[in-house]
Amino acid sequence: MSISTNPWVWIMGIGMVSLFSFIYKENAAYRFFEHVFVGAAAGYFLQMNYVNILDRAWIPLVAKGRYSLLIPIFLGLLLYTRFFKRYAWLSRWATSFMIGIGVGISSFGMINAQLIRQASAAMMPFLVKDKLGVILWTRSANNTLMILGTLSVLVYFFFSYTPKGPVKEVTHFGRWVMMLTFGVAFGNVVMGRISLLLGAFERIFGTWLGLL
Amino acid sequence: MRREIPLIITFVVGITLLSSYFFSGTIPGTTWVLAKVATDITGWGIIVTAFAAGLASVNLIRIHAEKIARKRQDWINSVALVVSLAVFFVVGVYVKHYPKNISMRTFSQNIFDNIYSPYGAAMFAILGFYVASASYRAFRARSFEASLLLGAAVLMMLGSAPIGVLLWNQFPIISGWLLNVVNSTGQRGINIGLAIGAFATAMRLLIGLDRGHLGSGE
To answer: Is the Cβ of B65 closer than 8 Å to some Cβ of chain A?
Structure first.
């Protein structure tokens, strides 16, 4: 392969190398392309929301006469009263509307998906047997660890009482379980970032410089 | 008045959506079907959020326009930001209204594939270096708990990377056990605690005990 002659690929390559130069030291090229990226992300996000307003509010209002959509349009416009000190308080109506939606959706979702389903998933047998009645020791040990681990994490988060004696030991176990969990999450994040880095290197050394 | 109406809006919207999960049929005294009202309100939320995104962009442009106008330090970067924002927005809107214009669609695809997507990947990949160096400083095995965290992270990485299998073929099995058993246990405990906390916060917002979102002053 040879070096790319496509100007778009050069824009990509120069931008990516400039962004990676931050690893060595913050510099003018990094700051410039960082601003380009922030602007691009904001513009793309803004355009997506423009399409949302057009498709979900303006077209149904004008073409289908759905006048109830004047309510969210009015609330949305009220957000811009923030720029006028005298009427800034009106923007609270729109904020409160969004908070109300968040509360309504999340409170049921949290209780249903996070609390009830997670609690019911934690209710498993300590001893697991196969069809012949033979105890499956590995699965039983895993189940026991999961039940005791979940309970000890919950005890750790019970702040209404200062843990003493055996309860304190339980909170210690809960903390160990959480540390292992955070370690797993951290390992996964690092692996995810490394795969992004490999993809970026492939673009620079392969697509742009033609070395791969 | 300036504080009461927002509290009423939060309560009415929140209670309507919450009720729609438990009740069906019409709202008492009206012909409005509760499920339909809840769906409409959720759709309205997307529209109001879209206006909020516009507000964020207006703020961003105001800050950088001021920087350009007063020629503050690094104002050229602000020009880059505003120009890039304008290009992405205008091109996106143009393509939405004139989808048959092939040259503009190609241009839109090019700026997405060669600017937005790779620059985003580079920004997040840089974080990988910083996560690694920050974690080295934060999680040096100075206590038993820190050793557990570091050990789990190293085992997860060895289990996921090809070199781990080459070193010892049991690494993927250990990392699988950590992920499916230990991680599920910790996540479950944290999620249950989180759900109780989030529900309590939601109830406080609903009945107006928590008014932080209204800001200070009248």
So the answer is: no
pLDDT of residue B132: 73
Q: Which of residues 71-100 of B touch A (CB under 8 A)?
A: 74, 76-78, 80-89, 91-93, 96
Domain ranges for chain B, please list them. 139-208
B52-67: pLDDT as tens digits: 999 999 999 999 999 9
CA distances from A104 to B34, B46, B48, B203, B211 (A): 13, 14, 16, 10, 16
Q: Quick count: other Cβ atoms within 10 Å of Cβ A149?
A: 25
Domain that holds residue A153: 124-212
The lowest-confidence range among A162-166, B130-134, B171-175 is B130-134
Judging contacts by C-beta atoms under 8 Å, the chain A residues touching residue B80 are 32, 35-36, 39
| Cβ-Cβ contacts under 8 Å, B209 against chain A | none
CA distance B98 to B93: 9
Task: For residue A180, tell me if it sits in a domain.
Answer: yes
Which pLDDT belongs to residue B119?
A: 95
Instruction: Indicate the residue of A75, A187, A203 with minimum beta-carbon distance to B156.
Output: A187
pLDDT digits (tens, 9 = 90+) for B173-197: 999 999 999 999 999 999 999 999 9
Does the residue A1 lie in any domain? no
Q: Cβ contacts of residue B28 below 8 Å, gap of 6+?
A: none
